[in-house]
Please model this.
Amino acid sequence: MTVADSLARLQDRIDKTAIEAGRDPGAVALVAVSKKQPLERVEAALHAGHRRFGENRVQEAEARWTGLRPAYPDLILHLIGPLQTNKVKPAVALFDVIESIDRPKLARALAREMAATDKRPRCLIQVNTGEEPQKAGVVPADLDTLLMLCRDELDLPIEGLMCIPPIDEAPAPHFALLADLADRHGLKTLSMGMSGDFETAIRHGATQVRVGSAVFGERPTDGQ
Ligand SMILES: *Cc1c(COP(=O)(O)O)cnc(C)c1O
Model:
């Protein structure tokens, strides 16, 4: 199947699932996760008219998209991977949405860079709903404090929440928890759901699904 076919099929499944859940299909955006994918697959998606992409590493994304961006001014790039404070400058320069804010130090660095450059990518806070020690994201109990810092003190454009459920658990309770947390804080954007569980995520209110392999095929393995 070509990338264009995969995209069309996926969009179909997204629309159907949204409608079945009584939601507006236009309220669910497809973020095509292009990390580690060969350039020709990404170009195929661009040629098919897709414009919203997700990357998990700043340097890899810079290398790929700096050259492509001028040809596609309506491109929307999401950073979906962990962000180190020493990469904040290129991240703010490149991305339109930063989904992985999870600690005060990073929030402060982002606020400083945005003030210095006048570029304000939309921001999401990543929540570690499974409270996994090795995983990025703020634990649910610390969300209130981080959110207050981001919104009230730093004036960051926080629009919503993102989560990656534990790999070995049913995702639904994690999606439900994220939706509940967002609701409690009046946040509208919910980034949740990947190739294996995006339909479940849509039923729980996802407004952005991050889908990689179901769009582009399996990522070439490189030992990671
Ligand atoms: C790689 C990645 C995805 C996409 O995963 P697939 O299973 O290929 O759809 C989604 N979200 C994040 C944060 C990722 O790193």
Observations:
- The CA atoms of residues 163 and 214 lie 19 Å apart.
- The longest strand covers residues 29-33.
- The pocket of pyridoxal-5'-phosphate is lined by residues 33, 35, 56, 80-81, 164, 194-195, 210-214 (CB under 6 Å).
